[in-house]
Each structure stands twice: as structure tokens, then as C-alpha cells.
Design a protein that fits this description.
Elements lengths: L1 H21 L12 H19 L10 E8 L6 E4 H14 E8 L3 E5 L2 E14 L5 E14 L5 E10 L1
Parallel strand pairs: 1-7
Antiparallel strand pairs: 1-2, 3-5, 4-5, 5-6, 6-7
Length: 162
């Protein structure tokens, strides 16, 4: 488990470097934030994301950048959009009732205009027709990027299932 988490962190750090370098124009941060302040700020973002996600509507999609990179089990790394994420979850919610059972406290790695958060999660998907239950648990890893308006958006996510 520790090796898997470390492996995912190394992958995400690589993506963080790539994302930091991919923009030709540098966004000048409006607010200089210390590491401890940034850790608190991102922890609040993660808490807010989960509080909205637990309602199982689509408002949590607003936490994502218009385009982001996703790394999911058994699929290639993909460039996604908020629209494609919305369509994906419309299909899921049409077939399943989803319940977040628990989540771990996030660990935050701050870095000026970017931060990484990761935490455990445990949720179930209940088939609306058969009532069969699928357990989904693992590690949720996110790369947050400060926007020009000083808000924070998800630019990368990875899910590692147990």
C-alpha cells in the first residue's frame, strides 16, 4: 500500500512539473501564501469538495478546471473536460445510488500556486434495479492549481482502488 501511494505521488509530482511548465504565460499569484496557510486553504477546499460531493448532485464538478488530466484504474491517462465529467456521472447516477461511507483526512503538499492533496475514501454504488452493491475504496489524489482570480481548481486527479 505504501509503495502504491509513493508510486502515485511520484507520478503526480511529475505531472505537477509538466503542468507548471505547459502554460506559456505565467499567472502571477494575487496572494502570496505561506505553506501553512496554503495547507489550511487546500484542506478547506478538500472538505468543501466532499461536503458537496456527498449530496450526489453535480455541483462538485465546479471544483474542476475546464480541462484536467485524469488517471483512473484500468484506463489510459486522459485529458478530460468538465462537460465529459458531467456526462460520465450522469450515466453513473442514472444506474446507481452512490453513498460516501467515509474518507480520510487529506494530506497536503503545498507549493506556491499548486498543491497536491491525497486521502483515502470508501464509498458504495448500489444498482437501482438489482440493489447489488459495489464497494469502491482507495486513495484519491488531486493536483490543485491557483487560478488568476485566486480560486483553486483541480487540474489532475488520480484514483487508486484497493
Amino acid at each position: 500500500m505504501k509503495n502504491s501511494t509513493l508510486h502515485m505521488l511520484l507520478i503526480v509530482l511529475t505531472f505537477q512539473v509538466l503542468f507548471g511548465c505547459r502554460n506559456e504565460t505565467k499567472i502571477e499569484s494575487l496572494t502570496k501564501t505561506s505553506d501553512s496557510e496554503l495547507t489550511d486553504l487546500i484542506t478547506k477546499q478538500v472538505d468543501s469538495l466532499y461536503s458537496v460531493y456527498k449530496k450526489f448532485d453535480y455541483d462538485w464538478i465546479e471544483f474542476y478546471d475546464d480541462t484536467y488530466t485524469a488517471m483512473y484504474p484500468d484506463s489510459p491517462i486522459q485529458l478530460m473536460t468538465k462537460d465529459s465529467l458531467l456526462e460520465q456521472w450522469k450515466r453513473i447516477y442514472a444506474q446507481y445510488n452512490v453513498k460516501l461511507l467515509s474518507r480520510g483526512q487529506p494530506t497536503i503538499i503545498p507549493s506556491a500556486d499548486m498543491a497536491i492533496s491525497y486521502n483515502s475514501f470508501n464509498e458504495i454504488f448500489i444498482n437501482k434495479e438489482t440493489l447489488d452493491t459495489i464497494k469502491n475504496s482507495g486513495i484519491y489524489l488531486v493536483n490543485w492549481k491557483r487560478q488568476s482570480d485566486d480560486s483553486w481548481k483541480i487540474v489532475f486527479e488520480a484514483v487508486h482502488q484497493n
